[in-house]
Predict the structure of GTPase Era.
Amino acid sequence: MRATYRAGFACFVGRPNAGKSTLTNAIIGQKIAITSNKPQTTRHVIRGVLHRPDGQIVLVDTPGLHRPRTLLGERLNDLVRTTWSEVDVIGLCIPANEPVGRGDKFISGELSELKATVLAVVTKTDLVPDKKKLAEQLLAVSQLADFAEIVPVSAVSGSQVGMLTDVMAKYMPESPQLYPDDILTDEPERVLIGELIRESALEGVRDELPHSLAVLVEEMVEEESVLRVYADVYVERSSQKAIMIGHKGSRLKEVGTRARAEIEKLLGRRIYLDLHIRVAKEWQRDPKQLRRLGF
Ligand SMILES: Nc1nc2c(ncn2[C@@H]2O[C@H](COP(=O)(O)OP(=O)(O)OP(=O)(O)O)[C@@H](O)[C@H]2O)c(=O)[nH]1
């Protein structure tokens, strides 16, 4: 007898830096979501589709839920809640190497109201020194809420990632295939390119900058051997613009070179990248600007 085909939507939630984006990438096997060691940099809902013989898992990447201080913060929280109500499986990510805290308790409380199956995913297991420490963490996590299952993983070493997807697939509803076989992501290329530029621009900047950064891909021009990409990186203040550009443009050049390499990897073709830094004052508070930037 053929196994039942199951397909549905899943997302990872958890406090900032819990490892959600890295795990999404490890599962889909391609760099589609932005990762960074700065909290709250995942802005767009990015889907990747995992194809299995017995089903499909459509992964939706959400930004972290946080205390809203600006209009952008509120929009992000709305986006998170909408996503949560639309998925079949939610993986609450809790790092193996950090104590279970109030943030985790708050999120698991919010999740208990939903119809989705909630799994606890104990991430970054490569960072705990021994099995005893891991066992203690699994116990602490089990006391947080009534999870359907608890799965420890390391997205970096790859340990247990396959096991996690088996568990996620098991809790998907019976359903026909949701996406054709060759679809890895349904996010428009433009958004993915914008994310890669944003990721590159965030590398090595000071803490206050990430919240003030947005990327808009203005134009993509097809030429015979190269795709020309024109993009604007928005910051809030001219002092930030100076940081982004660096001494004699050195930093901007670095950002561009790194982003171009990543975009070329993503699209498998030669890219010409033209980056401009622009100041959009207080863009996080301005609904018109937010809409323009896709929020
Ligand atoms: N050692 C180790 N580091 C990891 C692992 N997963 C993620 N990290 C690191 O933890 C940091 C945060 O990972 P992200 O995947 O960006 O976390 P996130 O939960 O998506 O973060 P936000 O976008 O801020 O919500 C990055 O520096 C990752 O490289 C893992 O399995 N092992």
Q: What stands out?
A: The longest strand covers residues 214-222. The beta strands are 6-13, 46-52, 55-61, 89-95, 117-123, 150-152, 214-222, 227-235, 271-279. Residues 31-44 have pLDDT under 50 and may be disordered. The chain has nine helices and nine strands.
